[in-house]
């Protein structure tokens, strides 16, 4: 039964949907009564210009991550110095989508990992600060060593014949947005 006053059907911190319908011989089947589809828009605050904005519609994975770490009701309620805002804004610039829904009980760390997986990233803690490791193109330091710039007696070369203790193949997975 649905109360006439919809204010009685509201709960703090939750979005509720009240549906009133009449049943007859064709719509009375329980399977039909449960088939309700909703197009929902997630509204989350964004960080810009040194401050958090009012909630706005977004599908960006970075703002979903930020909401999960900042929200005191369903997140972990981290303060400003406990997460790397630079990592979040850099991830937001990449504009990866996260349209996930958490409908079963999992840990916050698992939720953060799932959110960042959509952006090819993962969370980690460094020095008490929650950070984001992003899979991206990076420059690699290059150095050339030869007999002129190696300290005499410090170089050793060992050839290892193939055997059971060393790998003869490396398997790599590749994925892109398609």
Computed over alpha carbons, the radius of gyration is 26 Å
Shape type: elongated
Measured distance between first and last alpha carbons: 46 Å
Major sheet characteristics? 2 strands, antiparallel
**Structural class from helices and strands?**
alpha+beta
Strand order of the largest sheet: 1-4
Our count of helices gives: 4
Instruction: Give average pLDDT, whole number.
Output: 84
- Tell me the helix content: 10-25%
Order of helices and strands: HEEEEHHHEE
Unreliable runs: none
The percentage of residues in β strands lies in 5-15%
Annotation, overall tally of beta strands: 6
Textual characterization of the structure:
The protein has 178 residues and is α+β, with helices and mostly antiparallel strands. 19% of the residues lie in helices and 11% in strands. The chain has helices at residues 30-33, 61-70, 85-94, 108-117, and strands at 43-44, 47-48, 51-52, 56-57, 121-126, 129-134. The strands form 3 sheets. Strands 1-4 form a two-stranded antiparallel sheet. A hairpin with a 2-residue loop joins strand 5 and strand 6 (129-134). It is elongated, with a radius of gyration of 26 Å. The mean pLDDT is 84.
């Amino acid at each position: 039964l649905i109360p006439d006053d919809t204010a009685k059907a509201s709960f703090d911190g939750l979005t509720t949907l009240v549906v009133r319908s009449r049943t007859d011989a064709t719509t009375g089947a329980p399977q039909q009564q449960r088939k309700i589809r909703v197009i929902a828009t997630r509204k989350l605050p964004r960080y810009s210009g040194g401050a958090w904005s009012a909630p706005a519609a977004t599908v960006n994975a970075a703002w979903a991550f930020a909401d999960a770490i900042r929200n005191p009701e369903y997140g972990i309620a981290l303060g400003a110095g406990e997460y790397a805002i630079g990592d979040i804004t850099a991830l937001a610039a990449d504009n990866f989508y996260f349209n996930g829904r958490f409908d079963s009980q999992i840990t916050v760390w698992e939720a953060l990992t799932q959110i960042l997986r959509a952006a090819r990233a993962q969370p980690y803690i460094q020095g008490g600060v929650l950070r984001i490791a992003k899979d991206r193109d990076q420059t690699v330091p290059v150095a050339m060593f030869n007999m002129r710039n190696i300290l005499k007696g410090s170089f050793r070369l060992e050839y290892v014949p193939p055997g059971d203790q060393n790998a003869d193949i490396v398997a790599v997975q590749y994925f892109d947005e398609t």
